[in-house]
Design brief:
Blueprint (H helix, E strand, L loop, with lengths): L1 E5 L6 H12 L5 E3 L5 H11 L7 H25 L4 E4 L2 H11 L4 H12 L6 E6 L2 H11 L11 H17 L4 E5 L4 H16 L1
Parallel strand pairs: 1-3, 1-4, 2-3, 4-5
The structure holds thymidine-5'-phosphate.
């Protein structure tokens, strides 16, 4: 099964993606977006660089380029071999950040993602829902430097959160919403319950 985790910055999805991959068994591939391939990690550096100004469409196309590479190198081969793959973000991030928050259009971005991935969407997407103010407090507590997206502040995160709600209502069968304000163990239990429910 191909499972993606989604959420605003600071929602805890990276921790949960790791824990899920471990729970699914040793050797379960865990990849992140943008990234997960040599080319994709280089594109990631570019996209997260706070020094860089990017036109929204250029930004979207870079995310899609990294994604096309990841699908070709990792996700499609693993899926065809019948293995699980856990992905920290996938096309829904482009729809929420570039389509909704940056205003490029939800449907337009979905179509572009289809082009980049050959129409591949996760079998299950877990959306970690967290209030943007709480997420910002978590990021501040980590004490690290903000990347290009986090550096844009609360307004972007509010729009992204709104975008995710719209996406979840567009795809209720694929996307499960999880309350990410609980402690990590409870969130992990909710993640496993959803994965188990879809497998059954
Ligand atoms: P992260 O790996 O720390 O979540 O950083 C990735 C950043 O890139 C995050 O702020 C979300 C953003 N992003 C997009 O804007 N569009 C996308 O398609 C993806 C995958 C990520």
């Amino acid at each position: 099964m191909f499972i993606s985790l989604e959420g605003i910055d600071g929602s805890g999805k990276t921790t949960q993606a790791k824990r899920l991959a471990e729970a699914l068994g040793e050797g379960t591939p865990l990849v992140r977006e943008p990234g997960g391939t040599v080319a994709g990690e280089r594109i990631r550096e570019l996209l997260k660089d706070p020094e860089l100004q990017l036109d929204p469409l250029a930004e979207l196309l870079l995310f899609c380029a990294a994604r096309a590479q990841l699908v070709d190198e990792v996700i499609r081969p693993r899926r065809e071999a019948g293995e699980d793959v856990v992905c920290d973000r996938f096309s829904d991030s482009s729809v929420a950040y570039q389509g909704f928050a940056r205003g490029l259009g939800v449907e337009r971005v979905e179509h572009l993602c289809d082009l980049a991935t050959g129409g591949l969407w996760p079998d299950l997407t877990l959306l970690l829902r967290l209030h943007p103010e709480v997420a910002a407090e978590r990021i501040a507590a980590e004490g690290r430097a903000a990347d290009r997206f986090e550096g844009e502040g609360m307004e972007l995160q509010r729009l992204v959160a709104e975008g995710y709600e719209e996406i979840a209502s567009r795809h209720p069968r694929r996307i499960r919403v999880i309350d990410a304000s609980a402690d990590p163990d409870s969130v992990h239990a909710a993640v496993l319950a959803d994965v188990g429910g879809v497998r059954a």
